[in-house]
Design goal:
mainly alpha; 2 domains; three-stranded antiparallel beta sheet; 15 helices; 3 strands; 71% helix
């Protein structure tokens, strides 16, 4: 009898060991296959100031998945054949990206591979649970150079134009030629690092995380997330305007060094505070919009005093106020 009772436990333990071994082999295979891709990605995170935030993205995604571990355990494990088709697409993207030396395609294939592998092994419920943490990994991938340079030039010119408008509004004579701001004391260049793409990309990642954590409707979350774009662009324009005003008042040294960095950090902090306030306002508005209106009958019941049965929960018969207690 004891041998028979131990048999199911042994089978369960053997199955767990087998799953752990298969998972370890899978992790090793993926790590070896994508080792060059991961190595280049980590180098970009460390050496490119535009993507320093990428070091935190995998940690945050891992924490979100770990936090949802209870939902993974309680969900049904129904492998999906759609995941296999997605895995084939990810492998093709890796091969094509490697052959064409296109690192963005290779990095994108890694996220798709992890996503469709989860769908293939565990099914749709687990895939839905991990959908946001996996999608959040996209913010760790640097933009392709074609997209990056197509964004930086217009953003540089826009920041210079807004800064000149702000300088003229406070009585400072200034004109702009593209990304160059001409002041009476000299010229100020809105460099590529001052285009705002760095703060925009980081703000988008932060906005997605804050919007996901907000207990509001999907449309409310989209509104909160979309607010990051004008805030990042406006914050960068204010930063350039402040730099131009500082150069006009204190000299060219204001636009470089520690003072310039501290001013940029201050503007980013103010933009972040405005974003938090907008998120709170969206939460209040979305919460009040989802509350059902109180009907007239319910209103009458709420204004009426407690019933006789509620006054005397231990007795089903209503009592008169003159009757003595039993």
């Amino acid at each position: 009898m004891q041998e028979a009772s131990y048999a199911p436990r042994r089978r369960v333990a053997s199955k767990r060991l087998l799953n752990l071994f298969a998972g370890a082999v899978l992790v090793v295979v993926i790590s070896v296959t994508y080792a060059p891709v991961l190595g280049g990605l980590v180098k970009d995170w460390i050496h490119d100031p535009n993507y320093n935030h990428g070091l935190l993205i995998p940690l945050i995604s891992g924490y979100l998945i770990w936090k949802s571990r209870g939902r993974f355990r309680s969900g049904k494990m129904t492998p999906s054949a759609y995941g296999l088709a997605g895995l084939l697409v990810a492998v093709v993207m890796l091969v094509v990206g490697t052959a064409g030396a296109e690192v963005f395609t290779q990095r994108l294939s890694l996220i798709l591979l992890l996503s469709f592998l989860l769908l293939f092994l565990y099914g749709r419920e687990s895939f839905r649970v991990a959908a946001f943490p996996l999608a959040f990994l996209f913010f760790a991938i640097p933009l392709p150079y074609v997209i990056y340079y197509s964004l930086t030039s217009p953003m540089q010119a826009w920041a210079a134009k807004c800064a000149v408008f702000g300088l003229k509004s406070v009585g400072v004579q200034a004109i702009n030629q593209g990304n160059i701001i001409h002041l009476p004391e000299g010229s100020l260049e809105v460099a590529e690092a001052c285009s705002g793409i760095r703060s925009l990309y980081a703000f988008l990642a932060l906005g997605a995380l804050v919007a996901h954590a907000a207990a509001i409707s999907v449309w409310g979350r989209l509104a909160v997330f979309s607010m990051t774009i004008p805030l990042a662009v406006a914050g960068n324009a204010i930063r350039v305007w402040g730099s131009g005003l500082g150069v006009y008042l204190f000299g060219p040294d204001f636009a470089k060094g520690t003072v310039h960095e501290l001013f940029g950090l201050m503007v980013f902090s103010v933009s972040l505070c405005v974003f938090v306030l907008f998120r709170k306002a969206a939460k209040i508005l979305c919460s009040s919009a989802t509350l059902p209106p109180l009907s007239s009958s319910a209103l009458r019941e709420s204004t009426r005093g407690p019933s006789a049965l509620e006054k005397y929960p231990g007795d089903s018969r209503p009592r008169s106020s003159k009757s003595p207690p039993s």
